[in-house]
Amino acid sequence: MAAEKLRHIFLNDSADPQAFTSPQTFGSKIVVPPRDRVKHEQELTKQFQLAWAAATESAEIRKTVSLPVRSGVYVEFQSSPGFELLSKSLENRASGVRLLSVRTEADPNNENAIFKCATVYIPSTKEGYFLKRLRAYADESTETGKPRNKDLVESIEAIRLAVVESFWLDSPDLIPKDVPIWCEVWLSSDEEVAEKTFRTLASDLKVECQLGALRFPERTVILAKASRADLINLIESSNLIAEFRLAKETAHFFTELPNADQADWTKELLQRISISKTAVVVCVLDTGITNKHPLLENLLEDDDCHTYQADWGTHDHNGHGTLVSGVSAFGDLLGHFQGTHQVTLSHGLESVKILPPHGNNDQKLWGHVVSQAVSKAEIQAPERQRVFCLAVSAKDTRERGRPTSWSAEIDAISSGYDDDQKRLFIVAAGNVTEADDWRAYPDSNLTVSIHDPAQAWNAVTVGAYTQKTLITDPKLTGYVPVAPVDGLSPFSTTSLTWETNRWPVKPDLVLEGGNVLVGTDGFTTSHDDVSTLTTFFKPTQRHFASIDATSGATAQAAWLAATIQTMYPNAWPETVRALMIHSAQWTKQMKTQFLSGTKKSDYARLMRICGYGVPNFERALECGKNYLTLIAQEEIQPYEKSEARTRTKEMHLFELPFPKDVLLSLGEMEMTMRVTLSYFIEPGPGEVGWKDRYRYASHALRFDVNTAGESRTDFEKRVNAASRAEDHDSSTSGAGSDRWMIGANARKLGSLHSDFWVGTAAEISTCNMVAVYPVVGWWRERHHLGRYNRKAKYALIVSLYTPDQKVDIYTPVAVNIGIPIPI
Fold first, then answer.
1. What is d(CA 299, CA 285) in angstroms, rounded to the nearest whole number?
2. End-to-end CA distance of the chain, in Å?
3. pTM
4. Are the C-beta atoms of residues 310 and 417 closer than 8 Å to each other?
5. CA distances (Å), 107 to each of 77, 79, 102, 114, 261, in order?
6. pLDDT of 457-481, one tens digit each?
7. How far, in Å, CA of 357 to CA of 452, rounded?
8. Under 8 Å between Cβ of 393 and 493
């Protein structure tokens, strides 16, 4: 069952927390068919023993021919049609009995009759585990007179030895036959030793496996090229199998189809699309967009296609803008083609052509070009909420993080410097493009700097990672992917060469940017197999193409930003940006590649390579019972003028409504607290002072959190002293600083600050006070400019998370502040 999704909680006012005990909840009672107690036990015991005997016989036969055998038995339990199966009670991890998967099937004689199937692994030494439970059902009664294990045993209709179909969680007609095809093999462990064991076995069985693996809690996913016979062999040989699925198609499958077939796929998808009109659009600043493409024509009207210069036209002259727009509109287009689900599109598109059909813009004019592009879109439809997507960058990287007229203009537009209207820009970090650099991966990524204007403080700067390692094109025999699964994309640039104590941490995020392939001769190439599927700008020739590098990653980030804005129409641009970063995490592979230790300086280095990591789309959009997100959108006046001196004016203190009683009851349970502070700075007027970050940023804010047991009075005194310190580097006091993973020194750069710490629920229960306060900026230092009394908006996000999905930390808070909870 999927975890329940709940909306983030916006706090209009900071309220004192009140004692609250989570109301006791009762699960729905399972309904089971009526059974004859003795007869049912005898039948299930017989079926179980037959399955066990068949497994034992098969193992003995394999031993005689020196084939590997597993150390347990896979058994499938089935419910009666129309009834539930008490699948959770089939597992006993202390005994090594593991529930591997649960699926739903239709009765072949009655498609309206649905039954549940659960596949369970039982160690060879635990044959008596289920037999004992069956005998207890037949012979023993509870104090209330009911048969012991009644709900579990009576929910089971049949028991059989698991077969390939028991593990296959895709459509049964996709199970491979005699010809091997790429399949996802899901192992029942996330430990590296499990992966190594399986790979050794697969090699012995002559089953080809791709390099790299995906890891989830208690699961490892490996791509294996297997026939049905190979899958049976793996089941008979390994006790690590949890699931099989068909490997996802690559973009190459669709781009290589004849255009008539591509048109048919497009028509099929269009039948499943519904458009829910909102005021949210992604405004793509690029080469134009072909809005007559069947997948885009209902999302982009002619009136919303603009151009910087009239004689350029609004059409897409080289295809890049249409590539970006397909991902900005649909997100994972390949995923939509691989399913039959309904697709709801809730945001539209706009296009402003900012690149000429011939030649290039004068780089000195780029800031003006972007400013005019924004104006053209806003004049046409002033009521819309926009996410600006800029997947265009300069080739020159000499600035090394220092502001330019282009990046400063993006900061000015974002901050509303001229009109007080805040705007969200999603900007590509720029790409590593040389073959020699790809061959030197990942060292080359560490030296190629992020491109102008991606150093803009207020923009969400997007780098790239990749999960794409599957190669299906037979022409690429002998080629291997350069980057491992979940590793930094070979295209992604970084900010390691910048002055790391001065300029913002960039990129902010990394999203899918594709991979590069290298042959045995050292030749490198990009390819559709390891790229993202999107729309082609000449649909009369073909409907689909692929996109990679930071352009593709930026388009995905724009899609996510627009999706958040649609779900939360009252969220500020600062808040949407914060939610994207707040949800992000580094993959294990990124840590393996680039985290050399556990010091805060090690994490600071990792951030300049991978940003805050990969955004978790689900957490960016919603909460769960075990994942609570609190959001405050506020205005603060950082400074004021007193006589001839300008000084800091105020700080904000929040007492957040943490579910203290619930957290205390959880005691030593591990919990993560994360805090993100997002605001937009105004760039300092005149380039003379841009070498000094204190003269570039109009203001700067910081956050601090009270330590366990620290009273409000003591906390306020501590932070208030820091907020009024003349030394602008003294952004926080040292109290409790060791608990933070990133630390105050690394997180203070730029205009977005995010950090987290892992502690016990009891420790975190009292750490619910958050202070937001100002430090120095040019509004204060250059008081003759008269902006010292301006107010600044900010978004503060605080979340609590525990991996235990049975824990409910959301409901007590929602009830306490009057938010309805869906039943």
1. 16
2. 15
3. 0.83
4. no
5. 15, 11, 16, 6, 34
6. 999 999 999 999 988 888 888 899 9
7. 21
8. no
